[in-house]
């Protein structure tokens, strides 16, 4: 594990605060935190694992807030949450089977693909909220697929979950975002467990970033509840723009991991 100086840890904590704030509103915070971890010197697998650790605290902060607001009823979601846990762990185990060279080559372009989706996706409030499939079918199909993706890679999985709850189950924006955070909390915990077993977590970095995640997610969640979808699209655009600016540095050698 890299031995990072205090200034780098403080910078990563600030990055995680911004990422937690954005992630609580729209998802996609990993598009900021994951490249930052790789820029700090972590290997792709270490960056993915440590990103799960710090993101876990952001999800916990969001879920705690949404539970207090009565937007989540976890008792009725036992089977989907169990499937979420299992498939996320499988995703985290699967990505550890890939070599570091393969991850080094493909991970940045996976981030690009997700960023393009974030940039081009419709605003949540613009989607039709009519229920299209039964909750049981959603839990048996969409939840395992998104959970595996979250364990395997992760960035923007919050957006994918929120869109699923909104467009397929008919939830409003705040309720869809709240339920997305609950599933991501379970998914992050499962993936983190798999990464811990693989010895991939940089604990000092993850704990330093967890503080920023908790604060950013708390206030981002409050804005979701109070402002609804008014902030979602702007935040998605901010996330995408930041990543595009990072990619623009490719030829200059500022981001050698790309």
From TrEMBL:
Cell compartment(s), UniProt: Cell membrane
One Pfam family cited in the UniProt record for this chain: TauE
Annotated TM spans: 30-49, 79-99, 105-124, 136-169, 189-210, 231-250
Membrane topology: Multi-pass membrane protein
InterPro entries: TM_pro_TauE-like, TSUP
Record keyword Isomerase present: no
Entry keyword set: Cell membrane, Membrane, Transmembrane, Transmembrane helix, Transport
Family statement drawn from the similarity comment of this UniProt entry: Belongs to the 4-toluene sulfonate uptake permease (TSUP) (TC 2.A.102) family.
Protein's name in the database: Probable membrane transporter protein
Protein species of origin: Shewanella sedimentimangrovi
């Amino acid at each position: 594990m890299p031995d990072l100086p205090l200034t780098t840890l403080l910078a990563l904590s600030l990055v995680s605060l911004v990422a937690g704030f954005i992630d609580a509103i729209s998802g996609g915070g990993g598009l900021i935190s994951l490249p930052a971890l790789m820029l700090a010197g972590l290997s792709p697998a270490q960056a993915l694992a440590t990103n799960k650790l710090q993101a876990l605290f952001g999800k916990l902060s969001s879920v705690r807030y949404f539970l207090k607001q009565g937007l989540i009823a976890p008792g009725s979601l036992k089977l989907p949450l169990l499937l979420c846990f299992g498939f996320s762990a499988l995703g985290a185990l699967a990505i550890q089977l890939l070599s570091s060279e393969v991850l080094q080559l493909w991970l940045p372009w996976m981030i690009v693909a997700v960023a393009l989706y974030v940039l081009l996706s419709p605003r949540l409030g613009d989607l039709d909220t009519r229920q299209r499939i039964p909750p049981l079918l959603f839990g048996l199909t969409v939840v395992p697929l998104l959970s595996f993706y979250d364990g395997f890679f992760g960035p923007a999985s919050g957006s994918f979950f929120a869109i699923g709850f909104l467009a397929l189950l008919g939830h409003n924006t705040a309720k869809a975002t709240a339920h997305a955070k609950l599933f991501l909390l379970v998914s992050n915990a499962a993936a983190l467990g798999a990464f811990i077993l693989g010895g991939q977590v940089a604990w000092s970095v993850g704990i330093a970033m967890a503080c920023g995640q908790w604060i950013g997610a708390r206030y981002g969640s409050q804005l979701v509840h109070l402002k609804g979808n008014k902030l979602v699209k702007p935040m998605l655009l901010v996330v995408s723009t930041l990543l595009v600016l990072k990619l623009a540095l490719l030829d200059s050698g500022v981001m050698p991991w790309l």
